[in-house]
Amino acid sequence: MFKQKVWFITGAGRGMGVDIAKAALAAGHKVIATGRNTDKVTNAIGNTDNLLVVKLDITSLQESEAAVKAAVDHFGTIDVLVNNAASFYAGFFEELTPLQIQKQIDTNLIGPMNVTRAVLPVMRKARSGHIISISSLAGFVGQDFCVAYSASKFGLEGWMESLHLDVAPFGIHTTIVEPGFFRTELLEPESTNWAELSIEDYANRTAETRTAWEKMNGKQAGDPSKLANALLTIASEKQPPVRWVAGEDAVTAIEQKLNDLQKQINAYRDLSTSLSYD
Fold first, then answer.
1. From 22, 149, 150, 202, the catalytic residue
2. How far apart are CA 161 and CA 154, in angstroms?
């Protein structure tokens, strides 16, 4: 039987967040759609009695707490949290400034931590809930030109995997979502930030790689609306997956890494297992 839930979605003013919010509303759920620009969120999703639009910069713990309070005051609870808001700092490590890397970590890792920290007391009180954090294929498989983004998403996955053990005794589920390349707005100028420094040794590769990324925008194979509807399926399960790989390209790449890891373990198994005290 259908059970109406209250969804709290970050980054709902554009990209995948819009698709997730619309899918949840279409399925009959209540939605708190958040973003830095509430007008943009409203224009993207529309108006309905089941929708509450709230201003939220996820890098602010104070705004996260205020947004959660507004959500609970309006709908009474939060059943599903979707940590979706993210940015993308693209470039080789030496060409990204320390400030750019800090901003990447603040948005993609500390931001979801802020919102989750604000939501958890609500879910603990209810002894139920589901925290879904949108990671990336880049959160499991490293790639050149993505060092800052991968660092933030690898961190997100380690945090979420451990958080699962913290909160499971309270009836709270967690799911890491690892999408491959979906036709979202992540590569749009508003979301992508290019490395600010320029080092001659990287110049040709930087030019070639940036051009390739820009050409990919709008041509990714993944359909974000299908991913959004798949999340509804995941969230409706009694025992949702702790990790869910989204997209054929992500499945292929992650399976390849798992195979490579097993080969590396086997190659040094004797040395690795010889390190205990005699």
1. 149
2. 11
CB atoms within 10 A of CB 230: 14
CA distance 19 to 42: 13
129-177 pLDDT, tens digit each: 999 999 999 999 999 999 999 999 999 999 999 999 999 999 999 999 9
**Residues whose CB is less than 8 angstroms from the CB of residue 164 and which lie 6 or more positions away in sequence, other chains included:** 173, 174, 242
Q: Is 257 a catalytic residue?
A: no
Confirm if 115 and 64 have CB atoms less than 8 A apart.
yes
Give yes or no: 89 in active site.
no
**Coil, helix or strand for 176?**
strand
Q: How far apart are CA 31 and CA 168, in angstroms?
A: 24
3-state secondary structure of 200: helix
Taking every pair of C-alpha atoms in the chain, what is the biggest distance, in angstroms? 69
d(CA 233, CA 5): 13
Is pTM beyond 0.85 here? yes
